[in-house]
Amino acid sequence: MVLKDNKQHIIHGLRAGMPIAVGYLAVAFSIGIIAAKAGLSAPEGFLSSFFTRASAGEYGTYTLVAAQAAYVEVVAMCLVANLRYMLMSAALSQKIAPGTSWLHRILMACCITDEVFGVSMVHPGYTPPAYTYAAALVSTLFWASGCAIGIIAGSLLPQPMVTALSMSLYGMFLAIIIPPAHHDRNVLYALVASFALSGLCAVAPVTSQWSSGMRTVVLTIVISAVAAWLKPINTDDDGAA
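Predicted structure:
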């Protein structure tokens, strides 16, 4: 009975993961272009993307690798860029059946991406581990394959075309930040501050001596901390300001 139920959960998870996988393939292609510029081979990009599965985290990592940044900067960048997954893991824990083992809980947390988290949270009732594993597996395979294909394309296509394709990733990030900035003025203020301070720190006497990775890490922590202190997100049930 358990095996039959798990089979159904796997089938449902694969169905939920396929639309995610198709979207991942296109985005990961752009990540692969960046990885190619950092000198990664297709197998290296596949393995890196398979175990990371984070567009912002991978972009930051490959950019720092290309800049020959220190290991501590790469680790700090990944930690800051992916902190939201800790919150998602905590939220998903409320959707896991009480008797689920700690091993399954840890593995489900490792499977989380924004989209896998979304389909896992909307699953009726408790979310079975097999469902999350299946959704994560199919989407991860497409994500890693997209990165590898992007690396291959980056090494074969003419340089002007590679440069043009690499710009598509910036378009994706703009598509992520523009809608929330349009609806929330505080987000807009934070974005403007990020752009302004990033440019200022690049030419300031002290911070200009830092690597670009270190500046990004420090600015991310400082700006997000100040924004959270000045304009904390309201968590009241009534939604009052």
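Summary: Residues 29 and 164 are 13 Å apart (CA to CA).
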